[in-house]
Structures are given as structure tokens and as C-alpha cells.
Amino acid sequence: MPAWGALFLLWAVVETTKDCPKQCACHPLETMGLWVDCSGQGLTEMPTLPARTRHLLLANNSLHKVPPGAFDHLPQLQTLRVAQNPWHCDCSLTYLRLWLEDRAPEDLRYVLCASPSLAAGRPLSQLTGYELGNCGWQLQSSWASSGTWWDIALVAVALLGLVLLVGLLCITTRPWH
Q: For residues 125 and 137, is the Cβ–Cβ distance under 8 A?
């Protein structure tokens, strides 16, 4: 191979791995994309990942949560390994749970909860929405209020619908002459 060909290949490898998190090892794949191995690095939070990540290994770290949308900028992501982390299984893991349910449901059973005590030692897949908690999410006060005016408006709309339905039935049941 000519020297310029070897230089081109070296440049291509450097370009594909230049966005690799410093705690991780990135390897270019033959079919485009990256194999990003962050296993066993003691990570306590998600690293910033290259957009071309196809396989991501985050096992055996100290991750407690995954921020919502953490993998949204990784359209090629096919493999995600997150076992052996001390996951805090509350609503902060809802995104990870849904991502794995959609793309790798068989891997969900390997995500074991370390805390809170209600969930400790259980797979994330076995927790109910109640057990994950709501993280303080609530309906907007304007929708959640039980004010009298809201009730009156609902009754008025229901009565109007009933009157229209009766009128429509009367019109359609008359014989046509």
C-alpha cells in the first residue's frame, strides 16, 4: 500500500475517534459507526458520546441514573450494555427503561436496582410505575383544579351534546314525504 494510502487510513481512524470520551475506548467499525467501551471506568455520570456511536458499553461503573434524552442524538445506537451499576430506580430511570423496552427488552432484566430500599435487588423491568415514583410531576393547576366553574362547564357541554343528539335522532326518524 502506498504511503499516502496508509496516511489516509490513519487519518480516518483519528477522525472517527476524536470525539471519544477520555475515559472510554472508541473503535471504528467497518460499516461506519463506533464501538464505544466505557466499561469499568468508575463513571458516575453519562459521558458525552459521539453521534456515530453504534455499540455502547457502560457496564460495571458507578452510574445511578440516565438523563432523559441521553441517547436521542445517537440514531445508530444498536447495543447498550448497562449491567452492574448501582442504579437508583426512581423516575430518573424511566427514560432508560423505555429505551431498553423498545430496543433491547431482553437486556432490561440485567438492570438491577441498588436503591431505594423498596426496589433494591430487583430488576428494573419488574418495577411498576408507582414504585418508580413521579418525581414531582403534576398536572398544571388549571387542569387539576376542581373548581365549581369547571364542573358547570363540563355539565353544560354534556347537556348541549345530548340536546344535539336528540335533535339529530328526531330529524332522521321522521318519514320523508
A: no
In the structure grid, which three cell numbers stand for residue 104, read together? 433491547
Distance CA 67, CA 161 (A): 45
DSSP-H helix ranges across the chain: 3-17, 94-103, 129-132, 141-144, 148-173
User: Which residues on adjacent β-strands are paired with residue 56?
Assistant: 36, 80
Measure the CA–CA gap between 119 and 84, rounded to whole angstroms. 15
Given the C-alpha cell 477520555, which residue does it identify? 22
Give the C-alpha distances (Å, rounded to integers) separating 157 from 38, 161, 169.
57, 6, 18
Instruction: Note if the pTM is more than 0.70.
Output: no
User: For the segment 32-88, what is each residue's pLDDT rounded down to a tens digit?
Assistant: 899 999 999 999 999 999 999 999 999 999 999 999 999 999 999 999 999 999 999
